[in-house]
Amino acid sequence: MSAIIVDGLTQRVRDADGWLTILDAVSFTLEAGESAAIVGASGSGKSTLLGLLGGLDQPSAGEVTIFGEQISRLDEEQRAAWRARKLGFVFQSFQLLPQMNALENVMLPLELAGRRDAQAQALQLLERVGLGHRVRHYPRTLSGGEQQRVALARAFAPRPALLLADEPTGSLDAATGERIIDLMFELNREAGATLVLVTHDESLAARCGVRLRLHAGKLDSIERSAAA
Q1: Which of 16, 44, 196, 217 is deepest in the core (most CB within 10 A)?
Q2: Between β-strands 218-224 and 61-66, what pairing exists: parallel, antiparallel or unpaired?
Q3: 212 Cβ partners below 8 Å, 6+ apart?
Q4: pLDDT for position 170
Q5: CA dihedral defined by 85, 91, 97, 100, rounded to 10 degrees?
Q6: pLDDT digit string (tens) for 182-224?
């Protein structure tokens, strides 16, 4: 079974001049375990596509099927339940809850899933990302790189089938960003998840097996590495 099937995906929004097409009949397929980078100029529709893959919005037309489930046909409540079961998300701005410490942030998706071993699993993941000594620290006391490592641990905590990342190193310096990307790929190999990320960094895109290039809302090309 293919991990992701996108068929004729279109997104239009109304603006002052009428209707603006953000995505125009985008179609592609990704297999389970593949890594894919969505690349393109600013305004090409990258983040919109990622959001539709994550069920954060519904398309104007077309279908998104994830592991056999047509998420584009689900209502908002159903999509939220699907995300809790299947999806991990890493944001550029970390999106950690400021009133919770690192451990509590990582425990949250596990507790929502009813996992009785939430604390043990969260501690194990924080050790894995090198933050075993910072589990009781709150986001405001962590560096940007440390916050993104907490975010990675939280994203992988429920062992998602699909991991989405939106410019995961965009707010970090180059050296820290490179370490975070290395860690993300390591965790993803261990988890065996399908990975889709948005990036403007061509060197990061080259590390993915598939590159989806958008131009003005259209899928300009699909490039696959020889080993992909």
Answers
A1: 196
A2: unpaired
A3: 28, 36, 37, 38, 39, 49, 219, 222
A4: 83
A5: 80
A6: 999 998 888 899 999 999 888 899 999 999 999 999 999 999 9
Contacts of 181 (CB under 8 A, 6+ apart): 168, 169, 204, 207
Question: How high is the pLDDT of residue 226?
Answer: 66
Angle (nearest 5°) at CA 85 between 169 and 186: 40
Q: DSSP string spanning 67-117?
A: TTEEGGGS-HHHHHHHHHHHEEEEETT----TTS-HHHHHHHHHHHTT-TT
User: Residue 95 has which token pair?
Assistant: 């999106």
Q: Which residue has the higher pLDDT, 121 or 15?
A: 121
* pLDDT category of residue 55 using cuts at 50, 70 and 90: very high
d(Cα 76, Cα 57) in Å, to the nearest integer? 8
Residue 162 β-bridge partners: 87, 194
Q: Compute the 3-state secondary structure of the chain and give helix, strand, coil in percent, each to the nearest 5.
A: 40, 30, 30
pTM: 0.89
